[in-house]
Each structure stands twice: as structure tokens, then as C-alpha cells.
Amino acid sequence: MAFCTNCGNQIPDGSRFCGNCGAQQGAPTAAPMGAAPTAGAASFGAAADPNRMEKNGIFFTKADVIDFEIFGDDMQLVEIELDPGESVLAEAGAMNYMDARIKMETIFGDGSGADAGKGFGSKLMSAGKRALTGEGLFMTVFQNADPVQKAKVAFASPYPGKIIPVDLDTFDRTLICQKSAFLCAAKGVNVGIHFQKKLGAGLFGGEGFIMQRLTGDGIVFLNAGGTIIKKTLAAGEMLRIDTGCLVAMSETVDYDVALQSDIKSGFLGGEGLFLATLTGPGEVWLQSLPFSRMADEIILASRQNKGENKGLNNPISEVKSGLGGALGGLFKS
Predict the structure, then answer these.
(1) From CA 1, how far away is CA 14, in angstroms rounded?
(2) Residue 225: beta bridge partners?
(3) Residue 131's pLDDT is what?
(4) Left (φ > 0), alpha (ψ -120 to 50) or beta: where does 73 sit?
(5) For residue range 185-240, what is the model confidence (pLDDT) as tens digits?
(6) Of the residues 9, 75, 225, 235, which has the maximum number of CB atoms within 10 A of its CB?
(7) Among candidate residues 52, 42, 25, the one with its CA nearest the CA of residue 169
(8) How far is CA 36 from the centre of its chain?
(9) What CA–CA distance (Å, rounded) separates 82 from 75?
(10) How far apart are CA 184 and CA 39, in angstroms?
(11) pTM of the model
(12) Pairing between strand 49-55 and 58-61?
């Protein structure tokens, strides 16, 4: 394992940047065009197009190597510098500002090349699957159209939290993440769908049956709420987490749920009857404040404080909120 030259955080060997602070770890080294893939890596799809690659039946194109800088603390934005001809893919409405040299184009799909050669019906079905993960049918590509100068474009998270940069090339080119976690990525990354096959995890795990699958060899940026912590799990090592706190995980991590052994604590302890379990090996990213939890608190506070406009407290509302807090584990979603 290597260590970040900026913050000292432990990072996987070969990482191009630190997953904790985002600091670049030296100039990225791209594999020579047409080189044979290493064991366990994605293989090239066709000899006629060395940029076309495949991993577990999912096709993508070789991603652009982009430079970036993350600004802010709790309301972050990422500024991406594009060389001439380079592009970045983003969800609709994520762009914050861009240079005049940037060309913005709305495309049907994600531009990864996964739908190359397919008919309109197949492309529509692929886009529909992405819509189930919180993404739109259309995505936006930002390309530096200047033939000489570099250009910058910035993207911001839609709610308070952190932006997480992840180099897919250091995580076996696949990452599983929560719905709507994707913010932007180097063009070439495939934004797909991951079905949770375990019934218990789908019903009680907090993430549902549908998650996002990001496949490629480039850098992706995820947005999550609150403070983010990254953990490395050894083979067989288990971590129990509150449902909804998972942001992303390696494909090798097993995601499931477990019933609390103490039923009383499950009902009255405020954590619910089920806890999500993550079993290694692999990397996991956790968030301290899921957006759904923050939204629930805002809605609850707005209902409780309706009487403030009239200068009166509502005793019935106070009693109901008190009982709800006392039996929080029973009503926890």
C-alpha cells in the first residue's frame, strides 16, 4: 500500500490521487494503445478499435485523463481542467460554471459506447434502466473545443456534503454506489444499473433493489451527504452500518442485512430492526448524513413549528413528536 503525499492517508498502489483529500499523486500514466490487458483487468472489445473495452459484458471506451481540483468544505464543487479535445460527462443540472471554450452537448445515453451498433429500442431500454437509478434519459457532455488552450468546467453537489473522486482503474474498473450518487466523470465511463439480488437487502437494506454501477477506467465523482469516511475491509471482515449510510463499495464487497439480536433494542433503540452488513474484501465509502434523513428532519421540523407563525405552541404536536422519538426504532424506515 502507498500513502498520500499530501495528507498521509493510505491509498491503493498505483492510485493517481488520494480518495481522502483528492490530491494528485504524480502524473498519470496511460497504458499504451493496443496493449494487452493484464490479468483481472477489462479486455479490449475488438481489435479494430483499441479504445473499445469490456468488463463483465459491459462495454466502454477508454476514458479521457482529466485534471481536477475540489473547492470548499461542506458545500463543495469540483473544477475540471480539460486539454484540447477532452470531455467530461455529467448529470443534468450539475454544471456550475464553464469557460467559453467549452462546448456543451446533450446526448441520449452516457457516451461510453456501450450502445454502439444497437437500435433505438435497445438504446431507449438502456437509458430507461439508468433512469431507475436516479439519472435522466439524457446526459450532458462538456468538451474543450479549443484546439490549443486548456479549458475548465465546474460541477457542484445539489446538497450539503462532500464530492468523492474515485479512480475506477484502481478498483478493478467497477464501482457500486447508491442511487443518484453519480455527479460527473471522464467521458467513456459507463453509467449502468446494479440489481440487488438478495431479497432481505433489497427490502430492508436502505438502498432498495436498484443501485448504480459505474464501469470504466477513468475518474468518477460522487456526491454524498455530511462527512465521508472510507474503510478498507479484509477478506471476511464485516462492518455493520445504519441503513442508508452506504455511498459506494467495490464490486467484491458483499452487501446484506442482519436482524438485530436484541429485539428490544431494535424497537426502542432508534436504529431499527435491521442493520446493513458489508463483508470484505474491498473498499467502502460511508456518509454521516444521508440526504433522505436530512429531508425527513426538515419536514418534521416544519410540521412541528407551524404554530410559531401564530405565536402559539401546539401541545398535540409536541406529544406526538415525543412519542415518535421514544419509539423511533419502531418507525425507522
Answers:
(1) 9
(2) 161
(3) 55
(4) alpha
(5) 998 888 888 666 655 444 544 445 578 889 988 999 999 988 899 999 999 999 98
(6) 225
(7) 42
(8) 29
(9) 23
(10) 28
(11) 0.68
(12) antiparallel
